[in-house]
């Protein structure tokens, strides 16, 4: 059994330190012709700064660069994060932004002379004057901690599977966390010792009357990457960062005996996971799927205290399974199939970096997004990643994608997509009891980054489940809308309906359809697009079955004991189609929000959402939805799009209390 990490996997695992920070500088200036603005300070001047408004163009100054994102509007502007802005790094330039792309609602990003990222919204244009709203991330005069998470799992504090394990890699985000201007240079733990002070920063973790100093992998003003000493006591801990004699706020974390986080390929804590062949070291991907029965090495951190504590700061080679195991996980589930305990789980040799050698079950589901989750003896799950399983390029008929397509798209800087959706929703009425049945059509045309497409954090293959955990139910918009022209929908009744565009969401149009537009007898529905500035004309057909899905045990979801799981049953649906079971729960007192998605073949007639999935949700209130996915096998094509699909849903939702 190969225990040592390969160079490829090690580079991916040790490099996956998230860099993020909250806003520090904001402003709402109005610039007249030939006025410069510093986004690092919020001040205006006749020259210098980061951007100069000439009266008709906005030009980056000195070393600053800019990227015109698009007309996103105010709501999307407020949702942008530093990580989103830095993700556009390949698109920034020193070219002027012209007046034609500086209308009200336009958003552009600036990489400032101070090395920070700023989002700028145009709020008004009048003659040669322009009014802006901006937020600049990462500017600070002293250390402030805004978040601490496992380096790989990235599960926010408060969830049952959060916490920082003894001996784990973790990151701190905030502002002023290191000497201004320093950058994150990964420290070498092989043949050297990781420092406890780096770039002017030091960290103290205090549990009760004991304090420890984590060692650094990197330090920069917006983020620190560290290893928690294996001897740190478990329990509530206070974390402080000191820079130049100034101490940060005390941030509370829970130190736990184990809280494993698996590494995800795009450093998001979810989506495509990092897995290498245990013998050859080959890294698997969408174009090179994992055959069932293969032993792979998974990477991450959080199994627990290292049996050789000197490894907290220095590379110590693995000598044997017996001496270097950290046996935290009792089961690993692949697409819902129990693969038992790993063959080896423990140290990799590098401080804080764990590896898990595991054989993919021979009866595992194949697909591009097969879920993988580990569970400890207490039933607490890890984060959930997905793996491509199969032979050669993976294939996911339930999602209408292939590994070749995903590989091609994830390698692009941007991917243009089109999605046509027709669905019927039965949900609790907002007042008076009973239910409301709504037929609805939606068209969405947008451009995403290739990495977003490749991460696939919101998709799961048949038989598995995924979970998303956050501190709110809102998500930042990371897409730019595309103009597809006028879109109409015609159903069995023969009367076409024109979808209405959504000004606040460019690229999206919708129509709430008349009652009975989707009849109980099903039928064929046809979308037609006239073509617009970005997308060419198209025609796309979708056929609903004569027997629509009926969720037969809705009452079981009214109150759910999370640890016991939830079984749902149904009748009807299209032969060969798929059923999605989803739900969400929120806890207002802690701001916690969790959601899950599972997928099963419609022919199964039932599916049990496992307890280890539901325990990752907060105990609170929310809903459960069961829906039949009617996926078009042909998709549709239009000039200007890399990927296009149409899909139908028949969904029933109930209100749920999660205990």
Tell me what the structure shows:
Strand 25 and strand 26 form a beta hairpin. The protein is built from seven helices and 50 strands. The protein folds into four domains: 23-137, no CATH class; 144-256, Sandwich (Immunoglobulin-like); 268-389, Immunoglobulin-like (Sandwich), CATH 2.60.40; 397-658, no CATH class. Mean pLDDT is 88; it is low at 1-5, 18-23 and 473-477. Helices cover 7% and strands 43% of the residues. Strands 33, 34, 35, 36, 39, 40, 44, 46, 47, 49 and 50 form an eleven-stranded mixed sheet that branches. Strands 12, 14, 15, 16, 19, 20 and 21 form a seven-stranded mixed sheet that branches. With 659 residues, it is mainly beta. The longest helix has 9 residues, at 7-15.
The level of helicity is under 10%
> Any low-confidence stretches, pLDDT <50, length ≥5?
1-5, 18-23, 473-477
**Terminal Cα separation, in Å?**
42 Å
Structural class determined from secondary elements: mainly beta
The number of distinct structural domains comes to 4
Overall average residue pLDDT: 88
